[in-house]
Design a protein that fits this description.
This protein has 257 residues and is mostly helical. Helix content is 60%, strand content 0%.
Amino acid sequence: MLILKITIYFKILFISLINLNSDYTIIQLICFLLIGLITAHGIQLIHEIVHISVKKNQWNFFGEALGILTLTPYKIYKNNHLRHHRYLGTMKDRDFFDFHLLRKQSNLFDTIKLIWVNFKDLKSHTITSLTTSLIVYLILGFSLDNNYLVIFILSAYFLITKPAHFLIEIPEHFDCHRDNRNKKFNSRSIQNSIFLIKWFTNWNHLHREHHWNPSVAPEKLIYSDDLKSKYDFKNYLDFYSYFINQISKGVKNDSFF
């Protein structure tokens, strides 16, 4: 199933890259949007690869390849994410975004700023990894006769990918107990979601179930009524409404993410 998901990712990405040269502005804009969104989806595929590669090292090749195309240093992402699983429910935990900083934010603007100005995220983008990504896109741009491809990619990454990735990640643990090792209280699942969103997030809506069974393919996870907690939401819209409301008031409790 993962091979199929990776194949779909590559098809959407390269069809979009090719059609950036279209004579029609509307097609260029659609491709620009698709590149940003499919890159966020690609990061979710890297997340799945990380867990598979723990037992099957050959999957690291796919992780490195997707890492280059999504501007995500694979080895650093892998180490940080496995650390996240190891220390979840303790103050040592850190994930892709430093969500613990939200406790210190006083308004919505500061929270939105965290999406782009994330020290740990920027630090993880080592010169070598980022340079490799840019060289690959320069070569692709030359092959596709698109001298501005790198600019398109970087613009799509910062304008679309990072906000989209933030929206995918924030429901996982925000406002759950940070200092509780019980996954029922330190993680969240979204009960219902349409198939397109499930696919786009790579079934990340069942995040608590993922922490209980990290080796299970995301699409095979099932929402558990036994693990249901007060932190769960029926759908993403309900969660985002709650998130905006909490941030607008300011999250003050240090026990939470």
